[in-house]
Amino acid sequence: MSDLLPHFQSVGSDLYSRGMVSVHGGNLSVRDDNSLVITRSGSRLGFLSESDLITTGVEKDDENTRLASSELQVHRAIYRQSLFKAIVHCHPVHATALSFLRHIIHPEDEGGKIFIPDVPIIGFGKEPQPGGAAEEIAEALKTHAVVVVHRHGSFARGMTLEEAYVITELLEISCRTLCLVKNLKTGL
Q: Do the Cβ atoms of 168 and 90 come closer than 8 Å?
């Protein structure tokens, strides 16, 4: 697990310093065959230590399951339905704000158009629940690099935490750009 800690710390710190998670928000995980390492429930992603990384099963509960993030069921569903090895879940402000108003986000900046041309909003109009919509999120991530849960936050997948983080950051940059352009058009 100590090999993974620097990766979790780097991504967690970047998410926190860029305002994509609150002090105790968001979660990260990586898969290793039939087990996964996920951040502890209530951990501070910007300040992770080894005790914040919880190893549990992809399929089965064990003594560590109760310590894992409340989004464990979503992470498990994604791993069961795909070959991806890492998940970043956070609360990017601009992407989350757009999820209040749209069923899908279509980035208009060059990077967004190329890498995340359409971002589904999961559970539009429904009250978000921790660990909720797990199968729907996992299904959408088969064909999309990132999704946003209505009024809640994003889930991005990748082969590494860093790859999932890059997609997450691209989402927030694209959404911030969309919001700025809309505001500029309104003010003109």
A: yes
